[in-house]
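G., the chain you wanted modeled:
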Amino acid sequence: MAPPLSRRTLLQAAAVAAAAPAVSYAAAGRPASAAVAAVPAAWSAVPFALDEVALRPGVFADKRELMLDHARGYDVDRLLQVFRANAGLDTGGAVAPGGWEGLDGEANGNLRGHYTGHFLTMLAQAYASTGEEVFGARIRTMVGALDEVRAALRNEPSVLSVPGVFGGRAAENERGSYRYVELPAGVLGDSSAVTLAAWVKPGHEDSWARVFDFGNDTNRYLYLATRNANGVPRFAITTRGAGAEQGLDGTAALPLDRWSHLAVTIADGTGTLYVDGTPVARNTAMSLTPAALGTLTDHWLGRSHYTADPVFAGAFGGFDVWSRALSADEMAGLQSTPASGDLVSYAFGETSGPEVADGSGRGLDAVLRRTWGGPGHPGFLAAYPETQFILLESMTGSDYTKVWAPYYTAHKILRGLLDAYHATGDERALDLASGMGDWMYSRLSVLPAATLQRMWGIFSSGEFGGIVEAVCDLHELTGRAEHLALARLFDLDSLIDACAADTDTLDGLHANQHIPIFTGLVRLYDATGEERYLTAAKNFWGMVVPHRMYGIGGTSTGEFWKARDVIAGTIGATTAESCCAYNMLRLSRALFLHEQDPAYMDYYERALYNQVLGSKQDRADAEKPLVTYFIGLTPGHVRDYTPKQGTTCCEGTGMESATKYQDSVYFAAADGSALYVNLYSPSTLTWAEKGVTVDQRTGYPREQGSTLTVGGRGPARFALLLRVPVWATAGFRVTVNGRAVPGTPRPGSYVAVPRTWRPGDTVRVSIPFRLRVEKALDDPSVQALFYGPVSLVGRNTATEYLELGLYRNAGLSGDLLPSLTPVADSPLHFTLAGPDGTAATEFAPFYEGSEDPTHAYFRRAEPTVVFGGLDSGVANPVGSDGGSLLDEVWAAAPFHDKGALVARVRSVVDGWVADGLLTGADGDRVLATARQASYAP
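Predicted structure as tokens:
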């Protein structure tokens, strides 16, 4: 293990992950990784490591603490269960998480393993941010277990020995291990009479799982299943497929997790099925015998010739075959005294290795095998067989019940391992990650380009998430050309070329399948200098923001994108998939490192302070992260914090989001000449290169401003760049040690304060909030309400749009806030009544993770012309463009005094009268009302 590295060197190492959180590699007292990568030359800004930005008390720290309860409390052996089962290792009785991580979950658990990667990343971020050793210990436990899993997958299957019958041993087959016992030819002999008997302990209620299946295919076979479609044991023999089976069915289900003895006898045209020594079924017309089947190619325990049937999950305590039909008395005797079959006898007394010895004296030893053979490369690591990766290569259409985004799952595991390595310096994590890269390269590098393009264009099955970004980060650590070549094998040329040409082809695409592709392209640009990658990513971002963006920063409806600029027309119960916001933030962050366009951070603030914060319920739970999948924006929607069956992608990214809130508060110019303050968030920055600390104290967004105090060891020269939010249209002000910084701040820019900073220097930023609306691009009457950066949502059980007016008490500044009534002792809570005097609705910040029915959008209704609370009695006319007279008046705000407002009213009224949209008399009443009214500032 290398000695701890300097903090600046560690920052450079962590910073290679452009859109990933800059996880510190070696916080105090923790080991550091030996590999260090330089900051990409293309970056003009660099991020700070998570442990260089400490969260202070506030909404972010509160939300993070809720998630840390989950990170501390969840049993990681449950996550590891699916990996250990796949490798045939002892799972220690752990129960798989279920949902997307379970074999009984959606699409048969074809995505299992992804959640473990998310969890590792959460732990790594939590460790870097807090230094709590519990997180480091959990990382090392998981990495060690995954190392054991890979080692087991590299070798032949080994018997998993457990206590058996009569005080002996037995062989366990964990559910999800895909293992079976292959018997040699000749186990049935050529006898016309036979007894087949087995001790089994089923572990799951799988239908059609085989005790044994001897045959050639699905036409000629004999089998014994623990459960048929009716849940009872079944024996069958046939030479002409399922329709011609001669069978025996039991009368009751076998108990789970308890030993049962099953036996079948065939002799003289009669077949008998025994359960625990008792005959439960007899068929006197069983004309077929094993000899009638002829020479069979396969003799399996635990595996079916029907590929859709499950592998037996449970334990084998013995399997015997006799060349005669045992009597009822002999069968009863087997319940208390073991006996060996004369054709074959397996006691399963082995404690390791793949061989199972035959005790019959015939030397017909059996071998434990995997249904899928084994990995095609020693670097393979997954919680399921390599089969999904193989099948994808020949797929032409999506079917997630067969193949569900295997490279997406590989990405999550790879990302988690890289983050684990960065956080702890555990070389095993890097070795596992590097091995995964080698394995993927070995698979993909031999495929024709056309095959790759087809694969990556398949919905869902071909989804690969952020694997390009992760592989580029891996390449930065290993320096291996194969890893960079691997990253380029995921190029989806049709999408890249369209976006590079600024051609919008997003309509109908699955949103979250494609967003992380572009973060990967940014990293490919860093590694290769190929301009089309960066250009495509920039243009893509502009196709989403604002053209497919909801007010809270989210995107997608029913997981897909619709036509450009259709917002109100896509609002429903399945809008704004949480993963999409997570990935848009990663992309925005990656682009900011190349071009410090304030628009990227304006979006970052919007999505972080609204959708991301609001997707986490304000409640702790050790068992669940309590994060949304969709955030429905339909009127009256109630957020679901335990979505689908659990362990979903959005719960995974939600765990990550809640442990890296501070990752984009500050950035440094690459040459050290400036410090960007992008977010007003209570935090303390340690800028080791400058020997400076910046302590930011604020209650933002409950406070309309922030105070930053410089500390450190001495003077330091740099420009402090303070973001002016695009919505901060008036009153943004900066003072240094009480003196105003000259100039006129421009919304959507940075205020630069260059100077030699000394300990104790204090910067005060004032950011007056205004109440404003944002109109849906396709329907201006559908609007969202914002106060500063905060989306305010109405809490109301109605399932139709609330109709609300806001001009009634608008101030001369154009601020609509006077129309609302603050709620006492509840910051950022207001009430507002409808224009027809309906009961007032409470509006609250979207970021509050409640289960109240909410209205993120409302229908704007200004039926009459009202100024300063005085109603003119004149209907508010609407023009052909959908805008009203009041809209045109207030579009000119702010007004420096009442006279300026009245002059504006006169001008607008004259125009509407001239256009025949308002009578002269009504125009006079409107103007008189404007003169009589009193206005808030």
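The chain has a mean pLDDT of 95.

Shout if anything looks off.
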